[in-house]
Amino acid sequence: MQTSSSKFNSLLNGAKDSLPIVLGYIPIGLTLGIMAKNIGFTTWLMGLMSTIVYAGSSQFIAIDMINNQMSMAAIIVTTFFVNFRHFLMSSAYSPHFREEQLPFLAILSFGITDESFSIGMNTAQNTPEKFNRWYMIGLHTTSQLTWILSTMLGVLIGDFVPNYEKFGLNFALPAMFIGLIALLIKNNTGLLICFVAGTLSVILLQLGLSNWNVIVASLIACIAIVGIKYVHK
Questions:
Q1: Rounded distance between C-alpha atoms, residue 232 and residue 148, angstroms
Q2: Interatomic CA distance for residues 10 and 123, integer angstroms
């Protein structure tokens, strides 16, 4: 049983470890807000979307689809499949929270993003002594509040930044992912997987597989490396 002091320390640890996410979410959130402003989103509508959806890639896609006057059904189906990976991410946490009640598990799953999952699993594997529900609450709460406020601020400043690409904000998301992946590379195998996946992704993109190149390349690279290691056992 954790004391009030240990719970607070765990919350603080989670909040501290969210710093790389926070630094990445600010420019990305601003970019999304600016884009949303250009198609008529208000500050509060943007905040509501970021609170309920809370999935950057899906929100970018939804904004683009709304701008192109796509149907609601098409937007829902598209974002569902884009976020399908979250089912796998949440299941990966299950061994660490077997004793938790369903309400907490639901809240925990809702707060998972690619970035928070990367930080959370890294902590669970390398410093399990500080990994618990309060750590995850601190990590998720800080990350989500940053995202919500950044997207809302982006709408507010949208009129003053009509050309966000000029400032390089469109590279913020790839840059954050590169930084997070670097934290997870512990050996040559991990480095090889990243190299193979990155190379395949570029090749598939050039071949016209623009929407699935990253996912397909990652799957091929992982399967190939695992297969090679299995054969050489």
A1: 48
A2: 12
Do 67 and 172 form a contact (C-beta atoms < 8 A)? Answer: no
Q: Which two tokens stand for residue 50?
A: 């970021």
CB 44 within 8 A of CB 168: no
pLDDT in tens, 18-28: 998 998 889 88
Task: For 205-225, write each residue's pLDDT tens digit.
Answer: 888 876 677 778 878 887 887
Sign for the pseudo-dihedral over CA of 15, 105, 74, 205: positive
Q: What whole-number distance in Å separates Cα of residue 10 and Cα of residue 140? A: 12
State which H helix or E strand residue 147 sits in. helix 133-156
Cα–Cα distance for residue pair 150/30, rounded to 1 Å: 5
**Radius of gyration in angstroms for the set of CA atoms belonging to the chain, rounded to a whole number:** 19
Is there a contact between 36 and 155 (Cβ–Cβ < 8 Å)? yes
| Dihedral (CA of 213, 217, 220, 226) sign | negative
